[in-house]
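hey m, so remember when u said the tokens were messed up on ur end? i reran from scratch. heres the input so u can diff it against urs
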Amino acid sequence: MRNQWLKVLLPALGLFCISTTTLAWDEGIYLTQYTLEKPSKLEYLIREAKATGINTFVIDNEYISSHFAPAVAKVKAAGLKFIARIVVFSDGASYEQMHSKPYWEKKFKLVENSINAGADAIQLDYIRYSSKLPANPQHAKDVYQVIKWFKEKINARNVPMEIDIFGEVSYYPSMHIGQDIKMFADVVDGVNPMVYPSHFWPYEKYSADPYKTVNSSLNSLAGQFNNDPPFKVHAFIEAANYHYLKKTSNTQKQQYLLQQIRAVENATDVEGWYVWSANNVYENLFHVLKNNKTRDSDFSHNKTAQK
């Protein structure tokens, strides 16, 4: 009898493990707070997200607003994850800001506002020094202390915390802005390398091969931890190359996006991607997802087949 139960349970458990692993894959888009609080635009994005397999919205919380929580409730009611993006030091910190706890506390009020609205995770962006400052090995140590302070307070609310890092930090520490992912590893739950091909120099070279640029960057990040990073990794990719916005067709922009998505799908130890569009223009992304099989669409197909 016991053996008979095992014969039934083991295959089921195997299916559960496979489904759970696949289900963890995230596909997201970035929204400004203005877009979130604009009902018609939000309804459109939710509708398209549900139609294309997007399961995550990364949403700015820039200021306290009575419209914020009700709008977030619509996102969560649609079954979408809500990742709250908080800009810590706009355009990078000065020395005074980096060491000012009153400044940190001011930003933490936005964190609390997002958690109270139901954030599934807090994403800290611009948690770095200004890139205009001279290189200094002390910079990363200073940033580490700020990240640690935020993480302890955020985790105390039972919410994970992730940070955004420059794409170059996937390869090596940046002593100008003070980002060192190996140093930060024990004070983050997730890391989002901004591997925009247009942001690597020379951009003509790297944006000409978006697949290689994104894939190599993510594999290099994993390689810093022997292909087993102690945190979740989501790649920030770009909806379009801003250097060539007026010189490329929608078809070219769609191909650019698809190559980035494929690069993330084939990278080592990655949990998914977030697409960045400063103006929240995602029509090309929706077209790509509707007309190409992606990891998430494969899961949806397999889930239907299992029923």
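this time it looks ok to me. The chain has 13 helices and eight strands. if urs says something different then somethings off w ur setup not the seq
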